[in-house]
Amino acid sequence: MVLAAAVALTGLVLAARWAREGHGLAGLTLCGLTATAVSPFSWSHHWVWLGPLAVLAVLHASRAQAVTLGLLTFAWPVHILFGMDIHFPVLGISMLPGWHGLEALYGNAYLLVFAGTLLVARKALR
Hints:
mainly alpha
């Protein structure tokens, strides 16, 4: 709960700052990503905020940042290539799977994109 509260506070403060500086889409997107990240249950369709984030990345990010975002966001075919089992939903920490290596990266791709977005937001607002 403490980690979720800290992430929520950080994300919402950065979102509010972006909105106040006239970047409404960036602020709204970060607010939506933050809510999804701290939610106890975030299914893949809750991460719809990656759509506006992709638009922002294409418009404002470096090519490397935009490509990294695309690879992490649309990594779902990886499970086919590497034979990963994704036939079960992860229902909170009580059902945390024993992921290792590439599975851990793939299984947490949305959270990694969110963490990167927080870092970029913090840097951009300095």
